[in-house]
Design brief:
This protein is α/β, with parallel strands linked by helices. It has 15 helices and seven strands. Helix content is 64%, strand content 10%. Strand 6, helix 8 and strand 7 form a beta-alpha-beta unit.
């Protein structure tokens, strides 16, 4: 590179740096405005996430980007990342309290990660939250005397025993749980407590920074009018509520959670037994395989007890996983027999079954793959 080229590059890079500084100033202004929006929403009790407003805004910005010969997807990616940060800022402002008359909210397992997250959300909404741990059972009667709601968030294998201890709650107290299986805990709650009962399953981990756009499954138990405020409160936090029959939910979880987690476990286990060089795998991985490795690694960065609970929780999980193994063996037979056409025919059959969802998932995954590629540091 000659001296003139170097000088020209330096001039242009200085100009880029100046533009970047302006961008930083504009981003700071946008975040400050979002904080003010959060304050208005807090007072009015407006949900933190407004899907129609977001969709309309993105559509308008995409159109404007096209007019400036800028990639609409680039602008959408930037704005979505900014909005994710904005949701975090809005949360810090707090939330409108739907039920000011609510008595104590007792969170059994409140010192755990998920329990702490919900304790924070209730506290940000102005409720009096009591984190209840193992050491508090000696004074349980005193704690529960003023309970307006008892929320159980403990390991799955301990949920039944914990709920069984809650037979003396106040009649008007809401009994709820956050377990990832619903039928058995819901039935136990209904048997133990004669007051309002509801089962909840947050479809996210405790490491989320905001509940905006997160899913919470609701399995109704008894006296839904008594806990409607709770559902409204979760909605204000930005989560989307999905009502489901408890048994239907558990059937779906066999495929969504148990089979998927077990498959990921086996993938990681096989990498370990093969003594694979992960650095080399990453070096030769395209974005989609890098993302897949990241999801496998993510599993093994978490609590093994949690995933053991999920996989071993339901007897029928074994059936779903066994069926998966059977189909894997059927597919392996195609390979063993050199049946390339059989593979192609099966592929087409599955693709037809996916239908329009295949194209939808292809589109949704594109931005994730670009983000995975952007995160490369090698």
């Amino acid at each position: 590179m000659n001296e003139q080229t170097t000088q020209e590059l330096e001039v242009l890079r200085d100009q880029i740096d100046a533009v970047d500084k302006k961008l930083l100033t504009l981003i700071r202004q946008r975040l400050d405005l979002v904080a003010k929006v959060g304050g208005v929403k807090h007072k009015a009790g407006v949900p933190i996430y407004a899907p129609k407003r977001e969709a309309a805004m993105l559509a308008k910005r995409r159109s404007e980007a096209e007019g400036l010969d800028i990639s609409p997807q680039l602008i959408e990616d930037i704005l979505r990342r900014l909005m994710r940060e904005s949701y975090l800022n809005e949360k810090d402002v707090g939330f409108k309290q739907i039920n000011p008359a609510m008595k104590d909210i007792i969170i059994i397992g409140g010192h755990g990660q998920l329990g702490s997250l919900f304790a924070q959300m209730f506290s940000l909404s102005g409720y009096n939250v009591v984190k209840f741990g193992k050491q508090d059972w000696a004074s349980a009667e005193q704690h529960f005397a003023n309970a307006g709601m008892v929320l159980v968030t403990v390991p799955i294998n301990a949920t039944h025993d914990i709920i069984s201890k809650l037979g003396n709650l106040p009649q008007d107290c809401i009994l709820a749980d956050l377990t990832s299986i619903k039928a058995a805990p819901l039935q136990t709650m209904l048997e133990v407590h004669k007051g309002p009962v509801v089962g909840l399953h947050p479809m996210f981990g405790p490491d989320v920074g905001s509940l905006a756009k997160q899913l919470v499954v609701v399995c109704h138990g008894r006296h839904s009018e008594a806990y409607q405020w709770l559902l409204d409160q979760i909605g204000i936090w930005g989560a989307k509520l999905i009502e489901a029959d408890a048994h239907k939910h558990d059937d779906a979880m066999q495929l969504v959670q148990a089979m998927r987690h077990f498959s990921t476990f086996v993938y990681g286990y096989n990498l370990y037994k093969e003594n694979a060089d992960i650095e080399t795998l990453l070096q030769f991985s395209s974005p989609i395989y890098r993302l897949e490795l990241a999801m496998v690694g993510r599993l093994f960065a978490q609590d093994p007890e949690l995933y053991a609970d999920i996989i071993f929780a339901q007897p029928h999980n074994h059936d779903a996983i066994s069926d998966y193994l059977g189909r894997y063996q059927q597919a392996l037979e195609l390979l063993n027999n050199g049946d390339r056409q059989g593979f192609v025919d099966t592929f087409k059959e599955v693709a037809d079954w996916f239908g329009d969802f295949a194209k939808q998932f292809q589109k949704e995954s594109r931005s994730m793959l670009m983000s995975a590629n952007d995160s490369r540091v090698d």
